[in-house]
Amino acid sequence: MYQKPVRRFVHMDSPFRVLITGFEPFAGHDTNISQLVVSGMSGRRTLRCPWQGAALNVVAEVDTLSVDARGAQRTAERLLRGERWDAILHVGLCDTCEVPRIERLAQDKLDMRLPDNAGRRLTGSVIDGQGDRGCWVDPTVWQPEAFPGPYDLSVDAGTYLCNETYHATLAAAVEVAGSSPLPPPVLFLHLPGEKHMPLHKAEAFVDACTAHLLRPYPEEPVHVVAAALRGVDGYLITRRARNEADGGEWEFPGGKCENDEAWSQTVVREIQEELALEVKPFHPLGSWYRANEGGSFVIHLVACEEVNPEIEPSLTVHDALKWLNEGFKDVLPWAGRDGEMNDFVQTHITPKSSPHRPRSSNGRR
What we know:
Elements: E1 16-23, H1 33-39, E2 43-48, E3 55-65, H2 69-80, E4 87-93, E5 101-103, E6 105-106, E7 133-134, E8 152-154, H3 161-175, E9 186-191, H4 199-214, E10 222-231, E11 234-240, E12 250-251, E13 254-256, H5 263-275, E14 279-292, E15 295-306, E16 318-324, H6 338-348
Parallel strand pairs: 1-3, 1-4, 4-9, 5-8, 10-15
Antiparallel strand pairs: 2-3, 5-9, 6-7, 10-11, 10-13, 11-12, 11-16, 14-15
């Protein structure tokens, strides 16, 4: 992935429209902390950039979602009807948590341990069969001191309504035309119950999450996409040629988004240029921020499949390739944070099933 810096300057005093949602009470609870907190946040708010401290002028729209299929789809349907926000933050209750959980991943799975408020109870079901979906910001680099207390980063949003809502909104956001290079960020925040977090602290936590969604990194990064191209032998990785930047190191192939180019267009173009393969992109699986002497970059890993698996890769900027399955144990020299990306997809991602035939590790069947 050649990562030539392209800067997009954004004024710090630009007004932002954000959607913040909570849920009604469920499962015998008299209240739901997400509803209590979110209902009081409507209107104009002044937040602080977590990196430079500059004011972020925000107009917050709030919405209480019903705990049923209609509520889970409500935000997605609004996006598909043409409504737009600069960020979307879903907030829900985790009654077994003691600290907030920032959710990085929505599973393509429903396994409801109790009925929703409409009496629906689905077990062992997929949501759309397209696989797990990740957010396209990197909360691993956020400022802990900007939050009012400790929190966990989670890759398990559960298999109930919270997860269903998150998955539906992420799916709708990538379907919306004109997303360049990425759609506005979508995130799910689980709050513990009031026994563990008073309402004023919960509101401060929601504010901190919102500020990070609007200003997720210390500086505006170059947006780069990488292909999580999966066959039955695992994910394709490539080794940079010795005369290239990060020469001799392994990566998920891809490259930077050009001006006004959407993430899906970029991954198709880059894989065609680098490997002479035509791929079909599905959705982002996650994002990883990296800063070095050449600038700052955020790598968005995109679930892909080959359009024609009979075609062999043709290496141009790489000198080797491998297909890594879950049993791969060798230690590789990874470029940047690609090793973390590999651990993430190998450990946490349930993809859509692949129809591709096996390949050997050198790309030949």
